[in-house]
Amino acid sequence: MNGMTEHSLLAMTDPVLLMVSAAAICFLGYFCARRFKNTNDFAKSVKLYLPLMAVADCIIVWGWNLDILLLAGIDICGFIVMALASNYYFYHGS
User: Any stretches that span the bilayer, and where are they (predicted)?
Assistant: First the structure.
């Protein structure tokens, strides 16, 4: 019995909740990259992103009851957005 069933984790999750969570975490990654846009220090962005992401994750897990496994994937998406925005600001300035 392979594939997605009605009891699969992704099938039971509200898509709007998933999309709002992904947008919030991706915005958080963008905010962290933009905060240090005039420097070429990606580590500062990461040091700001990790605690903010942890607080946002706690709010999402306890407030919206989103599964931690799905949230880990969303956190990776936020990190990728931060890396891409940081790379853009490094090569194009402000």
Answer: 16-33, 45-64, 70-91
